């Protein structure tokens, strides 16, 4: 499902929306509260400045409300109007690439993974901003910092990791004969097989889902010790470890509800909340979607979350969705854009946004580990360390145009989809992925 909506944050309509902002703990937040500064402002907006931000459609309403309220407070403090365009997760990447290469459109983009590495020469150098943010807020996590830096400078500002974890129905797991959730891939397969036998199957996306599809495919590969490329950026996907990951994926796929090969990021949410599957991997948004609907009270009370199982590699290895904010070179008001980001990262504003996101967004800066959202609900626990534990795209090779291009082309996602659906044999699926990767890593 594609949702296209433009929100113009100005005037009384925005203030009314901000006044209705309610965080996950039931505390009403007025937009004016966001205006209190922490630290002196470092950037002065240009006279007459206005900005336009392209962002992904939110899955948690509170996150959107808090972002909009903080934006309105920035406008009140500076006079800079900010227009926010929302696009579906799948559409942000191509629209941002067009804007970068054509040189018109949004001034900033809230993008995915290493997308900025596809057009680094089209972006404003934000080394001054990110250095200041790092010094002021305890430093960026290593993995998220990697998504913002290239050749010793910052090309994008790391915003958050959207944690990914197993969401499952506790009663269905127990009905399938398991008192505790298995923490290894062998036990996990047995659970999925038992769930299918009980008529309460699992389901994971094998379609071109920016978040869930990539998270699942990378976990499959990494948990079995496979890699797309090595430290030198040489393609090494054709390996026994990759073959083992595919054979395991085939066995899991046999337990899934039909149709997962076409799932996008919204589909596993819908299937779980409709009672069609009782186990998938998702952000915490799935839990809150059930919590806010009285008709889903039974499902909401039955939901449990846990980190993805550990495979033969012997350690937890997860991708986790990451988002950064880039400023395009064609932005006429780069100081205003930097001032906007500096404002959004101020302690009280960032804490308010993280709290309202209900553990959906994991902070990029270490200061915000102390936000009470992470200990307010046991459901949040698997998501709390996403920024700290994530493994970057293209592991173990360097981030850059090759890793960004390969992900945007869904090479790894397609490899598993081709094999599990029988479109290609395991060997042919790997060979095809190898050919495609070699077009990027040359």
Automatic annotation (TrEMBL):
<keyword id="KW-0813">Transport</keyword>
<dbReference type="InterPro" id="IPR050490">
    <property type="entry name" value="Bact_solute-bd_prot1"/>
</dbReference>
<dbReference type="Pfam" id="PF13416">
    <property type="entry name" value="SBP_bac_8"/>
</dbReference>
<dbReference type="InterPro" id="IPR006059">
    <property type="entry name" value="SBP"/>
</dbReference>
<protein>
    <submittedName>
        <fullName>Carbohydrate ABC transporter substrate-binding protein, CUT1 family</fullName>
    </submittedName>
</protein>
<comment type="similarity">
    <text>Belongs to the bacterial solute-binding protein 1 family.</text>
</comment>
<keyword id="KW-0732">Signal</keyword>
<dbReference type="GO" id="GO:0042597">
    <property type="term" value="C:periplasmic space"/>
</dbReference>
<dbReference type="InterPro" id="IPR006311">
    <property type="entry name" value="TAT_signal"/>
</dbReference>
């Amino acid at each position: 499902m594609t949702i296209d909506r433009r929100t113009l944050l100005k005037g009384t309509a925005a203030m009314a929306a901000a006044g209705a902002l309610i965080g996950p703990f039931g505390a009403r937040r007025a937009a004016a509260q966001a205006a209190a500064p922490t630290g002196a402002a470092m950037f002065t907006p240009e006279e007459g400045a206005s900005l336009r931000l392209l962002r992904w459609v939110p899955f948690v309403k509170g996150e959107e409300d808090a972002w909009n309220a903080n934006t309105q407070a920035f406008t009140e403090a500076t006079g800079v109007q900010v227009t926010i365009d929302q696009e579906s997760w799948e559409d942000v990447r191509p629209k941002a690439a067009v804007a970068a290469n054509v040189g018109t459109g949004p001034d900033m983009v809230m993008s995915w993974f290493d997308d900025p590495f596809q057009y680094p020469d089209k972006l404003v150098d934000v080394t001054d901003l990110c250095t200041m943010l790092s010094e002021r807020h305890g430093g960026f996590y290593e993995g998220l910092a990697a998504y913002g830096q290239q050749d010793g400078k910052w090309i994008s500002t790391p915003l958050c990791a959207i944690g990914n974890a197993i969401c499952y129905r506790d009663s269905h797991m127990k009905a399938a004969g398991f008192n505790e959730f298995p923490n290894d891939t062998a036990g996990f397969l047995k659970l999925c097989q038992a769930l299918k036998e009980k008529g309460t199957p699992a389901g994971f996306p094998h379609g071109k889902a920016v978040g869930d599809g990539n998270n699942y495919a990378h976990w499959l590969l990494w948990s079995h010790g496979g890699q797309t490329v090595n430290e030198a950026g040489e393609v090494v996907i054709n390996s026994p470890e990759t073959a083992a990951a595919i054979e395991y994926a085939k066995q899991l796929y046999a337990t899934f509800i039909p149709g997962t090969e076409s799932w996008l990021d919204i589909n596993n949410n819908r299937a779980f909340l409709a009672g069609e599957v009782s186990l998938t991997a998702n952000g915490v948004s799935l839990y809150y979607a059930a919590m806010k609907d009285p008709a889903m009270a039974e499902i909401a009370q039955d939901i449990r979350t846990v980190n993805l199982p550990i495979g033969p590699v012997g350690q937890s290895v997860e991708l986790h969705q990451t988002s950064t904010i880039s400023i395009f070179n064609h932005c006429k008001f780069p100081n205003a854009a930097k001032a906007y980001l500096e404002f959004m990262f101020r302690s009280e504003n960032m804490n308010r946004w993280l709290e309202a996101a209900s553990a959906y967004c994991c902070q990029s800066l270490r200061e915000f580990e102390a936000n009470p959202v992470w200990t307010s609900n046991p459901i949040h626990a698997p998501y709390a360390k996403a920024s700290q534990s994530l493994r970057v795209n293209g592991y173990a090779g360097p981030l850059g145009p090759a890793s960004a291009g390969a992900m945007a082309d869904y090479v790894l996602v397609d490899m598993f989809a081709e094999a599990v659906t029988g479109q290609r044999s395991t060997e042919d699926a790997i060979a095809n992925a190898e050919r495609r990767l070699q077009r990027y890593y040359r």
